[in-house]
Design a protein that fits this description.
Length: 486
């Protein structure tokens, strides 16, 4: 097919029209099981390391060399025990975490890193299949009541730890099912929800109580939290970044989190067809991160005619450069399974407006190439003259990240303080300005990775337990101000 009308033909970096080459027909997870012998080989490779640095890349402090060696020795139950010692939900992180541990792997200095993430998945899946994962029941209850608001990975981790410490924990979730973004933000092809459902069943068997359709600050009065001795805020950073350009109001321009949940609801069997669908449409995804890739895979499965994914930053390098030394997590060019399925990735491009038809429907967008510059220590983007182009499209998805927690409702009614970054302020014990209210996960840290959310939930649980009991034996892998290795 030829170039889209309006493209600058002399600039080969501008997007070209290319139909989706292969139609993905199902929503199951895309990766096949890793053969057990290959898992053992990878576990054995870990023993070639002298001093492990993988721990420095993982905020959970996962005992990676230990369970790798146990896998090599075919001791799967012991490996599962070591894996769960630091991570409540390894089947989640093994599928969703970008694996900073692998980037810190010593073998990765001059050879492929150990496939730590894949080993984690195989240990966890085998643990469930072979019955190694069981409810952990406490012998003595404390009689203390704790509320956890939000059921994403941080809230679930905090709730499980506090339940196992003997407290009576109730989790409030505003959606109709437990899981937060794990449930309605992560597509089925990336993580099938059966993994989430069986972990929730384990938590219920342990004694954690769940309340769905419970939006604290709206249909659940904030005053209801007064019956709890401690409250954990784990509602995430759900206030999305918008693109306030002309035409934003057109029918066909949506936020990623207005779009993705419908695909999951179809897979849950709630509805037959998504009200926002890419079927038969030309799609542009604005945002080059994980959420954008989730949108990409979803649009392909729904039957998009063609898809372009825009990113304002330049294309990252293929390998580490001097500013990305080992063992830090490098910002290099990465290809997800969704990218392998189709679509065009377009870098260094800025969308300036959306164009509509006479009925208010999106018909195209107008954009131009940009160059990244630094002015007074701040990153800016300058228009490249002569690169303006118009791209026909009927659906645009904004996947540009999140700016912090939603303030109306719960946060405003509670009266918690907000810091200069727009997150809920907290002290060194994850405590807000209110004596018995704590905060963890993206609501306090800002948008981050699932592995950081779980680490925050575990650490916050330890702080709450100490607040209630005067001491704690719960692990606290990170502090509120801990940051990734740089």
């Amino acid at each position: 097919m030829g170039e889209t009308t309006g493209f600058m033909k002399h600039d080969r970096e501008l997007p070209k029209r290319r139909p989706i080459p292969v139609r993905v027909a199902d929503w199951q997870e895309v990766y096949e099981d890793f053969p057990a012998e290959k898992v053992r080989v990878q576990g054995g490779r870990c023993m070639d390391c002298g001093i492990p640095f993988c721990h420095t890349g993982c905020p959970l402090g996962n005992l990676i060399p230990e369970w790798n060696d146990l896998v090599y020795r075919d001791r799967w139950e012991a490996a599962a025990d070591r894996l769960h010692a630091t991570n409540n939900f390894p089947e989640f992180t093994g599928r969703l975490c970008p694996a900073p541990c692998e980037e810190a792997c010593v073998l990765g200095i001059n050879a492929p890193a150990v496939t730590i993430k894949q080993i984690e998945v195989e240990i966890s899946d085998r643990a469930w299949e072979d019955g190694y994962v069981r409810p952990v029941l406490v012998e003595k209850k404390t009689g203390r009541r704790v509320a956890v608001v939000g059921s994403g990975p941080a809230g679930l981790a905090a709730a499980q730890q506090l339940t196992r410490a003997g407290h009576d924990v109730t989790v409030f979730e505003r959606a109709d099912r437990i899981g937060g973004l794990l449930r309605y933000g992560i597509p089925e092809f990336k993580m099938e929800k059966r993994h989430l459902d069986r972990r929730i069943a384990q938590m219920e068997a342990e004694g954690t109580q769940f309340q769905t359709n419970a939006n604290v600050g709206e249909n659940v009065p904030v005053g209801d939290l007064e019956q709890f001795e401690a409250v954990v805020l784990a509602g995430g950073a759900t206030a999305w970044r918008d693109l306030p350009v002309p035409g934003r109001e057109l029918q066909g321009v949506y936020q990623a989190m207005e779009y993705l949940p419908w695909g999951n609801r179809v897979q849950q069997g709630d509805i037959d067809d998504a009200p926002i669908s890419a079927k038969g449409k030309r799609v542009v995804i604005i945002g080059g991160g994980d959420t954008g890739a989730d949108c990409l895979g979803t649009t392909i499965r729904q039957g998009a005619v063609e898809v372009h994914q825009f990113e304002i930053l330049p294309r990252p390098p293929d390998a580490r450069v001097e500013s990305m030394p080992w063992p830090t997590y490098p910002m290099i060019y990465r290809v997800s399974s969704a990218h392998e399925e189709g679509g065009e990735r377009v870098y260094a491009v800025n969308t300036e407006c959306f164009l509509g038809d006479d009925e208010g429907n999106l018909r195209a967008l107008r954009a131009h190439k940009v160059e990244q510059t630094i002015v007074d220590g701040r990153m800016t983007f300058e228009r490249v003259d002569g690169t303006d182009f118009e791209l026909p499209c009927e659906l645009v998805l904004l996947a540009m990240g999140f700016v912090g927690p939603q303030r109306p409702g719960l946060l405003e009614q509670l009266g918690v303080e907000i810091n200069e970054r727009g997150n809920v302020s907290r002290d060194g014990s994850f405590r807000t300005n209110l004596a018995n209210v704590f905060v963890c996960g993206d609501m306090g840290r800002g948008q981050s990775l699932i592995v950081w959310a779980i680490a925050e939930g575990r650490s916050c649980a330890a702080a709450v337990d100490e607040f209630l009991m005067g001491e704690t034996l719960l692990p606290a892998p990170i502090a509120p101000d801990s940051v990734p290795m740089r």
